[in-house]
Amino acid sequence: MNMQIRIYIGGNFDCLHSGHLNLLKYAKEIPYSWVIVSLNTDEFATRYKRKPTMPLKERKAVLEACIYVDEVIINEGGEDSKPAILAAKADAILHGSDWQGEELMKQMGLTQEWLDEHRISMIYTDYTEGISTTELIKRSSLIK
């Protein structure tokens, strides 16, 4: 019997920082977890937040080197995360507590019915306050 739990985490992961690491570490500490990061394309990242400071290839290389990540896939579906979630064969989707419920589900193109149909659960962990890629960009713009 396969006890492995496939944990899906989607995002831009631009400028990997301590908040990202906290999220990934939490996922890896779930017993029997296999952590899959679904990385947004540069085009989707730009539509979603901003043009990434690191292109997809670089963001992927950094994540592949992270000890908390078992696999990196590319979210080719953009706003519709369902194809990437199915490709990952996810048992659960992990997200920070900063964004949950209907807004998150809508952003990912999901419904509770779809999750139930595919036996996928949602897991939330505490959001790391005071750090974000936006914050890092602001900090770096202060350097003269």
Description of the structure:
With 144 residues, this protein is of the alpha/beta class. It is built from seven helices and five strands; from the N terminus they run E-H-E-H-H-E-H-E-H-H-E-H. It has helices at 18-28, 42-48, 56-64, 82-87, 102-108, 112-117, 133-141; strands at 5-11, 33-40, 71-75, 92-96, 121-125. Helix 1 links the parallel strand 1 (5-11) and strand 2.
Could you give a quick summary of the protein structure above?
The chain has 144 residues and is α/β, with parallel strands linked by helices. The protein is built from 7 helices and 5 strands. Strand 1 (5-11), helix 1 and strand 2 (33-40) form a beta-alpha-beta unit.
Features:
single chain, globular, 38% helix, 144 residues, alpha/beta, five-stranded parallel beta sheet, 7 helices
Low-confidence spans: pLDDT under 50, at least 5 residues? none
H/E element sequence: EHEHHEHEHHEH
Number of helices: 7
SS-based class? alpha/beta
Strand order of the largest sheet: 3-2-1-4-5
- Specify the biggest β-sheet: 5 strands, parallel
Oligomer: single chain
Strand content: 15-25%
Topology:
Blueprint (H helix, E strand, L loop, with lengths): L4 E7 L6 H11 L4 E8 L1 H7 L7 H9 L6 E5 L6 H6 L4 E5 L5 H7 L3 H6 L3 E5 L7 H9 L3
Parallel strand pairs: 1-2, 1-4, 2-3, 4-5
